[in-house]
Amino acid sequence: MNVLLIGSGGREHAMAWKLAQSSLLDELYVAPGNPGTLRHGRSVDLDLKDQKAMRNFILEKRIRIVVVGPEGPLVDGLHDRIADDPQLAGKVTVIGPRQHGAQLEGSKEFAKEFMFRHNIPTAAFRSFTKGQLKEAVEHLDRMTPPYVIKADGLAAGKGVVVTSDRKEAAQVLKSMLESGKFGAAGERVVLEQFLSGVEVSAFLITDGDAFKMLPAAKDYKRIGEGDTGPNTGGMGAISPVNFADKDFMQKVHDRVAAPTVRGLREDGIPYQGFIFMGLMNVGGEPYVIEYNVRLGDPETQAILPRLRSDLLDLFEGIASGTLSERHVDVDDRTTATVVMASEGYPEDFEKGFPVVGVDMVKGAYVFQSGTILKGDALLTNGGRVLSLTAFGKDTEHAITNVYHSVALIDFEGKYFRKDIGRDLVRAPQQA
Ligand code: AMP
Ligand code: GLY
């Protein structure tokens, strides 16, 4: 089977690595891919908006499965453009929802209304549009701080502000609704109740009918140790985590995952692909903070090594509508993932520094994201440069192992958090 994977990050490198292990795979193409994915498939330069080029590529290379890594192309309707092309109809399966289903991530208001309609636990909310600044500010007085303010549309993880300062909250509302910060994404804002707890990323894969849970992970979102400083795409991950124990994950399955897939069906929204449930564990009860319509980065780098099952077989289960017959077999051991970033990220940083030591790493997987090949030299080319994943029999061993490997890699201005997973080791183990 020939597969086209869309994306260029560490998530896509991990997916390419996993797909390449499948006996069902013939050729893997990655658009655009990165120097890491080159080991597992061919990089192709494809303009996703050029319908003719996409169609010709899919037909010429006999692509059966298109896997979309990031949310952007899905929210933008890539699935619809492929599935509705008369020459491609029935020939290819897209892993990732149509534009309608992608609204689960593309619009916070859509997601909140969906959750309320289907009784899926989430924070109470009100939404306001351009022209309702006064009402939005007045609404702050009916809320208990901290205030959670979210731009409705995609804002690359930067559209959420949590603050206890009413003045700041009012300013944020003004900057989004009036001054056009976040552009169209911020023309509608969602004000929601603050949830106090620990966050966990849970994942499912669905053919629109059946679904299977994938391993859960904790993501370390802030740039600084001890969860300080600005939000990033994610600086590390641990899978599994002790605060998302069997009991909790059963609740996630019953109260979040199952009603989400059922709700999509009831609403007449066809959905095939992944759903990332960003959850808050509030005293043992799961609440949905957000949905994403894709896998997480760096969570994917932590969970795919634990997945023993053939990922392409699961995709084939989606293609044939027989996902219910497939098995998801998971390694019990723990993985720790540490992201190595460029100094200055998530703000300004320099690029073009040689990355050395990747080939010396033996005890971890090295997934590339912000790298580029210039001749034979591997250079930094982004904020998040690499992520490393190691196994351990528990969190403590996994983090010891991953940091051994991190120490072998060097580039000018390398930055990584040294405390990934530390909070989980100190935390008392739950029964
Ligand atoms: P989101 O983009 O919706 O995932 O929000 C980004 C981050 O803001 C989350 O990872 C949480 O840390 C925080 N956050 C979002 N919504 C809430 C909420 N209702 N209560 C507490 N924290 C929240
Ligand atoms: N690591 C969080 C995300 O992928 O959105």
Would you kindly provide a written description of the structure presented here, covering whatever features stand out?
The protein has 431 residues and is α+β, with helices and mostly antiparallel strands. Among the domains are: 2-98, Rossmann fold, CATH 3.40.50; 124-192, 2-Layer Sandwich (Dna Ligase, domain 1). Helix content is 28%, strand content 28%. The strands form five sheets. Strands 10, 11, 14, 15, 16, 17, 18, 21 and 22 form a nine-stranded antiparallel beta sheet that branches. A hairpin with an 8-residue loop joins strand 7 (147-151) and strand 8. Helix 5 (99-106) packs across helix 6 and helix 7 (133-140) packs antiparallel against helix 8. The model has no long low-confidence stretch (mean pLDDT 94).
Highlighted features:
single chain, 431 residues, alpha+beta, Rossmann fold, Dna Ligase, domain 1, nine-stranded antiparallel beta sheet, five-stranded parallel beta sheet, 13 helices, 22 strands, 28% helix, globular, binds adenosine monophosphate, binds glycine
Blueprint (SSEs and pairs):
Blueprint: E1 2-7, H1 10-20, E2 28-32, E3 42-43, H2 51-60, E4 63-68, H3 72-75, H4 78-83, E5 93-95, H5 99-106, H6 108-117, E6 125-129, H7 133-140, E7 147-151, E8 160-163, H8 166-177, E9 188-192, E10 198-206, E11 211-219, E12 222-224, E13 228-231, E14 236-239, H9 246-266, E15 273-282, E16 285-292, H10 299-303, H11 311-319, E17 334-342, E18 365-368, E19 371-374, E20 377-380, E21 384-392, H12 395-406, E22 414-415, H13 422-426
The structure holds adenosine monophosphate (AMP) and glycine.
